[in-house]
Amino acid sequence: MSDAPLWQCCQTAAALPIAGALDTSPASLSTHPYLVRFAYLALAFGSVACAATIEPYDAATPSRPNAPRSVVASRISSATVSGTEYFSSTRLRVSWAAPGSGAVPRYEVSWSEAGGQFRNSRVVTAPTIDLTDLASGTAYRIDVAPCSALTCSTSDTASIATQTPGEVWQMQGSGSSIAGLTRIVPDGNVKIHVLRYGSGSASAGRLLMYYGPIQQAAKGLAVATTASATNYLSFDSRAGSAGLLNPPATATLVREIATGQGVPLAANLGARIRLFFEAPGADGRTRIMSLDSQDGYTGFDFNTGASTVCATQADYSTSGGCAPTIAIGVDGDATAASPRISNARQFKIGVPTMTDWRWDGAAGTFMVFTTDQVPGCSTVQPNQGYAVWSGSAWQVQYQANGCPKLFQSMQAAHPLHLGGTRFKIYYGDPSDQTGRVAGSNLPFLGPKKVIYANGARSGDPNRVDFEDWDPTSAGRPLVFLWPNGSPLNATALGYIDDFSVVMPTGVPELQVLYVAITDGTVAPFASAAVLINP
């Protein structure tokens, strides 16, 4: 029997000329475009109930069509770098030949990740289709079934297995070492986060960056902007005159300013930039906190007082102009406590930027943040904890045994919205220390990887829960090239840190990964890579 909806088979059966029983004689069938293989009609109370497989019928060749032939999934070229061709990591071209028998007016193409429970499908009339929005470096099963005008045959399906290419990122600049890389801001060091101004901002189309500058007098989170989206490799610094500076004396919650992320807020939240940041306090423990801008979407000034910077112990104190709000506290805190977590460090929030560049505070938004080793829960460090916004507070997610839900051996995680409730996270895997420079005390994050999430995988399909993510064991390795097209070795790859990914023009055809990079001996500096095979 067919998997077609009941109304479809009944509609077809009811359209046939019947008188108590279905006339299946060749004379009757020859006047109708479909062969009804089985039908049961109950006329009592004026109802019709049936189950049928409705398939294409060719009067000249009255035979059931067999499966499509020669199904092939081909890679689609994206770029050629130094003589090497690279193929799209998210698109495949599927083609096939018509069945050897039977007329087929259309086909249903279905695809799913190998072993996955969720399938996508499209109906086409031509024997080819380009599949888009696929996950990179991922195995897929693709099925092609012949269809009539109303339904598709599930017993005559041709299937193939294939895999998308992995992502390839090219560092910007020249040559094959860090010496030739583009420095996106002259004083850029670490702690990089970039966002795109959207509609409703006077700077729409430009990029805004929060970063850690190299000069001691401006340490903290400085601010820089581009002149336009197309100038995504050149930022003008406002270090020292905007943003957050380290206080010369420790405030209760702020000894120094570490990594941060600017999140544009929608009108219902004040139409401004909320700058989340991590900071160790006077007790030596690190928390994630936030301040709201006082200059709307400009995002330079976070001081409610006369000064345009946050810079002193008094600024960061309870009654100061930059008194922070705790977003993620630590074990034992009176505010926003997180049991079993001693420090909440480097973090990123999954803002649905493909929906709107501004966050409306919708419940279900997620945050990933770095934790130390959690005794009894994780034997490695660093890990990534997971928090979900309730609509009024960030709530760290825990397992039934009281352990926080953790991505183990994941560092510097950065999510990117792909549309709907689909995201990907870029991260370093510090469990692999291959290539680390002996004696270097600079952070070594190991190979870079990506995993994916789909909110439809579990629970509420309208939000992304921890369980909606691939396990880290499914992390797809990323390939990085130098500007001249040669690949980075394990050492160069491992010393990429503090990355932030953004679509400067708002479309996935241009994705830029801003990074802090070193060779293990020199001070890290801010540079960028471009995805050459989106």
Summing up helix and strand content along with how strands pair, one would put the structural category as: mainly beta
Tell me about the largest β-sheet.
Answer: 5 strands, mixed
Termini separation:
41 Å
Summed up, the helix count is: 4
Helix fraction bin: under 10%
Name the average pLDDT.
89
Can you tell me about this structure?
The protein has helices at residues 6-15, 26-29, 313-316, 490-494; strands at residues 34-36, 54-56, 69-81, 84-97, 106-113, 120-124, 128-131, 139-147, 158-163, 168-171, 188-196, 207-213, 220-225, 236-237, 244-245, 260-264, 273-280, 286-292, 325-328, 347-349, 366-371, 383-389, 394-396, 406-408, 411-419, 422-428, 448-454, 476-477, 479-481, 496-502, 512-517, 525-531. With 534 residues, it is mainly β. The chain folds into three domains: 6-56, no CATH class; 69-163, Immunoglobulin-like; 168-531, 5 Propeller (Tachylectin-2, Chain A), CATH 2.115.10. Strand 17 and strand 18 (286-292) form a beta hairpin. Residues 1-63 have low confidence and may be disordered.
